[in-house]
Amino acid sequence: MGGIDDAGVCISALGALLAWSATLKLRFRTEFNAAVRTWGFGPTWTRVASLGLPPFELTLAAGLMAAAFNVGNRTLMCWACFLTFTAFSAGQLWVWRRRPEAACGCFGRSSRSVSTSSVLRTTSLAVAAGFTAVVS
Could you list the pLDDT tens digit for every one of the 136 residues in the chain? Predict the structure, then answer.
């Protein structure tokens, strides 16, 4: 009978984190939108980020959860997660360097500013996804 292996546990944890983050962004949409406006992306990219990030994160989370149980291409989903967290880290770094007072918004309504710890957290998630892609 099939189960979940060690890599599957890591993959499902990454998927659960993305699902939780997206759910909070949707639940606290007003606060998340306010955080996105502080990032300084301009009106078009602010709208894209506000409307696009939660469904993107939920879609990736669903793919990761399926991949954790060997449904679909596990390696491809891990690399997609790696690229996503790498892009998020680069975006956070860009925002942090240009607008130190900008709100993070990673979990919807947090009023915390983008900081070294948020960039390092997201970079650590990218490393975990990349490592899992290599070993799975």
Answer: 456 899 999 999 999 999 999 999 999 999 999 999 999 999 999 999 999 999 999 999 999 999 999 898 999 999 999 999 999 999 999 999 999 899 999 998 877 899 999 999 999 999 999 999 999 8
Instruction: Kindly compute the dihedral angle of the four CA atoms of residues 82, 113, 97, 107, in this order, to the nearest 10 degrees.
Output: 20
Q: How far is CA 135 from CA 5, 10, 132, in A?
A: 12, 11, 5
Burial zone of 119 (CB within 10 Å; 0-12 exposed, 13-18 middle, 19+ buried):
buried
Q: Helical H runs in 28-115?
A: 29-37, 43-68, 74-98
Asked whether the CA dihedral 126, 128, 38, 48 is positive or negative, the reply is positive
Instruction: Indicate the pTM of the whole model.
Output: 0.92
Contact yes or no for 63/74 (Cβ under 8 A): no
The widest CA-to-CA distance across the chain, in whole angstroms, is: 52
